[in-house]
Specification:
seven-stranded mixed beta sheet; alpha/beta; Spore Coat Polysaccharide Biosynthesis Protein SpsA, Chain A; globular; single chain; 42% helix
Length: 233
């Protein structure tokens, strides 16, 4: 709880058994509730989530990253969240940063907070980000900033926080069930002229962290370009 506002962290999970405990243990005490939505994992994610005492929603089919987030946000709103933080349970993003996300939104500086991994090329690559992902990230972010008129340092982070009003007003329910969901949500937020803030989130790529391959990254990139063109026209 912060400023009498309920904070819920949602974890869109898929095969996160090896990293889930590390992620949960680093979530700060400011958080009121943790919701894990499992996208039909084939490992022990659900067993580990039960051991950690999380609220669990097991999806009956593997619907994709966007579909998982839709379930996450629906549940968070139903559970009375005022601030919703989306965090990958693969420990790629530092959960301790949640405190600052919540404070910026709770003190009414911003409606949306993003954790940016791109402060310099050296830091991003030293943190394990594949070079092709860095290039894709930079190129797409430049394109999206030009299209939108914003100047965000990264459009493709997987650590985000939203004021309740944002998720009540934008139509995320109709977005893609795939990874391009993230780009669609940000374009919807820009269209509604919500205030977007950013804080640095150190890059952490390692063996257990989830990561899409080159071809899925390419598909995501092309989908993002198409979303930008639709936004422009």
């Amino acid at each position: 709880m912060y400023n009498q506002q309920k904070i819920i962290v949602v974890l869109p999970a898929y095969n996160a058994a090896e990293t889930l405990a590390r992620t949960v243990y680093d979530i700060p005490s400011i958080v009121d509730e943790i919701i894990l939505v499992d996208d039909k994992s084939s490992d022990e994610t659900l067993v580990e989530a039960k051991r950690l005492g999380l609220f669990i929603y097991p999806r009956e089919i593997n619907g994709g990253y966007g579909a998982n987030q839709k379930t996450c946000y629906k549940l968070a709103l139903e559970h009375g969240a005022d601030i919703i933080v989306m965090l990958h349970p693969d420990y790629q993003y530092d959960p301790k940063l949640i405190k600052y996300f919540a404070e910026f939104i709770g003190d009414n500086y911003f409606d949306v907070m993003l954790g940016t991994r791109i402060r310099s090329r050296r830091e991003a690559l030293a943190g394990g980000m594949p070079f092709y992902k860095y290039i894709f990230n930079r190129a797409l972010t430049i394109f999206e900033n030009f299209i939108s008129g914003y100047n965000l340092s990264e459009w493709h982070t997987g650590m985000r926080a939203y004021k309740r009003d944002v998720l009540e007003k934008i139509k995320w329910q109709t977005n893609s069930d795939d990874f391009v969901f993230d780009s669609q949500v940000l374009f919807q937020i820009v269209k509604k002229q919500y205030r977007i803030g950013e804080i640095p989130a150190p890059v952490r790529y390692f063996k257990e962290a989830s990561s899409i391959n080159f071809w899925r990254s390419l598909k995501y990139g092309l989908g993002t370009v198409w979303e930008g063109i639709k936004f422009l026209f």
